[in-house]
C-alpha cells in the first residue's frame, strides 16, 4: 500500500475541514493543527491560500474524473463513444456524494482558476448544453442528472434508493442506452 503524499494529505485535510466549517475554514493555521505539519511545510506545497484552493479544485475534479473512468470500465473519455461517455458521467452523477463535494463544486464558480479543472473534466465528458443544436435528450439527461446529484443536499428528506434507481433508469432511457 502506497503512502499518501504530503500534498494529498493537506488536500484531504482541507476536505475534512470544509465538511465541518466550509471553505472559509481552510486556513494555514487550521491545516497545521489538523495535519501536524508546520506552516512553512504547508507553504512549501501551497505558497498562497489561492494556490491551496486551486490545488483543492484540481484534486477534487481529478477524483471526480476517476469515478467517471471507473464507471466507464477504466476507459478514458477519448476511448469511448459520445453516448458511452455520457452514460458514465450520468451514472456517476446519480451517486450520493458528501456535501463537501457540492460545496467545493459551488466554490469553483468564484474564480476562473478554481473553475478550470472542472471545465476540463466537463469538456471531456459532458455534452455542450450551451449549444442549441445539441441533442435535446442529452441536454435533458445532463441537467436532470445534475439535479439528482444535488438532490439530497437541497432537501431534508433524501431520495429513497429505489426512487434513485428509477430516476437513473429514466435518464438512461433519454440516452437510449
From TrEMBL:
Molecular function per GO: DNA binding
Key words, A-Z: DNA-binding
HTH tetR-type domain residues: 4-64
Name of the protein in its database record: TetR family transcriptional regulator
Leader sequence residues: none
Start-end of DNA-binding region: 27-46
Species name: Corynebacterium renale
Amino acid at each position: 500500500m502506497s503512502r499518501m503524499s504530503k500534498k494529498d494529505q493537506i488536500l484531504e485535510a482541507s476536505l475534512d475541514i470544509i465538511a465541518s466549517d466550509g471553505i472559509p475554514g481552510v486556513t494555514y493555521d487550521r491545516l497545521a493543527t489538523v495535519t501536524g505539519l508546520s506552516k512553512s511545510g504547508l507553504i512549501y506545497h501551497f505558497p498562497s491560500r489561492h494556490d491551496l484552493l486551486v490545488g483543492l479544485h484540481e484534486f477534487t475534479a481529478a477524483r471526480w474524473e476517476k469515478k467517471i473512468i471507473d464507471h466507464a470500465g477504466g476507459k478514458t473519455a477519448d476511448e469511448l463513444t459520445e453516448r458511452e461517455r455520457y452514460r458514465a458521467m450520468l451514472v456517476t452523477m446519480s451517486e450520493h456524494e458528501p456535501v463537501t463535494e457540492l460545496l467545493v463544486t459551488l466554490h469553483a464558480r468564484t474564480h476562473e482558476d478554481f473553475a478550470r479543472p472542472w471545465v476540463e473534466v466537463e469538456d471531456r465528458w459532458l455534452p455542450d448544453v450551451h449549444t442549441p443544436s445539441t441533442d435535446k435528450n442529452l441536454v435533458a439527461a445532463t441537467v436532470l442528472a445534475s439535479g439528482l446529484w444535488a438532490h439530497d443536499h437541497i432537501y431534508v428528506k433524501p431520495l429513497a434508493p429505489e426512487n434513485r434507481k428509477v430516476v437513473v433508469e429514466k435518464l438512461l432511457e433519454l440516452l437510449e442506452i
